[in-house]
Give the backbone structure.
Amino acid sequence: MVSNPSPGFFVAFEGGEGAGKSTQVRLLAKALKTGGREVVTTHEPGDTPVGKRLREILLGHETGDLDPRTEALLYAADRAEHVASVVQPALDRGAVCITDRYIDSSIAYQGAGRTLDPADIGRISEWATGGLLPDLTVVLDVDPAVGLTRFSSPADRLEAEPLAFHQRVREHFLALSRGNPRRYLVLDATEPVDDVSATVLAAVESRLT
Ligand code: TYD
């Protein structure tokens, strides 16, 4: 995989259900904008017109069972469109692009969760994205027994998977981050929101300067 050769800076938030990623994306964006940076916030799946349709298929209960390989390819298709039309243009302009989920979600959910080969899933996403990797991936870690209780809306297709699925996902996020402190920041998502966001901001700023 290549990293990010563009002038912009690419941050991905990853983690299981109920980890508070969207709050942290918002707080990081706000702080960086206050500091005068151009910031683009985005998410997977579904932040492009085609992606919205793929999201309905991927997360809607009316889809029913999907072959795991089909599911993996649909997430990769969403990602290809997302990188081509949102992420790469932002990075080319020199913006900070913050995404709520990226490649590691596929490796953890479709690889460890669905028990496909995580290496295969990584290769599919590598092809889909032209090898674009985040400069920093923030993993918000939470025990799924806690995270799964944090929903306000009904569980979607993935959220409705059993606890053991979500435990495999969690372990895999942690495994991916192990031994790579430059690219990964793992934080306890049960810590106070403001403490987590301050740590994330410091990590981003130290890499931006
Ligand atoms: P979403 O409603 O966007 O919320 P959140 O990120 O807060 O959980 O749900 C996206 C779901 O899709 C989530 O259950 C994780 C799953 N997912 C995958 O299984 N593979 C992927 O590659 C991505 C990006 C998401």
Q: What stands out?
A: The chain has one domain: 2-208. The mean pLDDT is 96. The CA atoms of residues 23 and 193 lie 8 Å apart.
